[in-house]
Amino acid sequence: MGKTIRQLSEELKLSKQGINQRINSINGFRSKHTYKVKNHLEIDNQGVKMLANFDKQKRQERQPNQQDKNDKNDKIDHILLKQLDVKDQQIANLQQALDQQQKLQIATVTENHRLKEHIRKLSGLLEPSSATQQQQSNDKDDTLSNSINAIHDNAENDKQDQSHIVDEKKKRIHKNKVNKSWWHFW
Length: 186
What we know:
82% of the residues lie in helices and 5% in strands. The chain is mainly alpha-helical.
């Protein structure tokens, strides 16, 4: 003998709507496990067991899904760990390159300081004597006087060129006047 939805709801301590939802969620449940007696619907004993074990069945269905999710998460974790390892290696390579660059920079600065000291020592040894200083000042004076003479020569050449141009223009004007006189037309 079966049970009604009301009896089953009291036994399972669920509402009638909860029982109906469970019935509707199981495929083919109504056609296989329910029958109508007078004005109400009754559920056979096998259907009652199915509805009573509904929560256990749902949990068992969820477990494989949960296992699949865990497997996917494990795969993602593994991929992320590989990526982290690659990034760690890249960072180590960049750090090594940076260390090498800093060592080269320090060596360059040290070499520059050493060369500056060497130049200072050489300049101290090669202080010019008074004769050398006199020669250098004479060379400077000669250079200045040569520059002044060159400027003066250029100015004279410019004046000569200008006077030559003026003479040429006067000759042309005079020639034109001679050709334009009135007696030449006869």
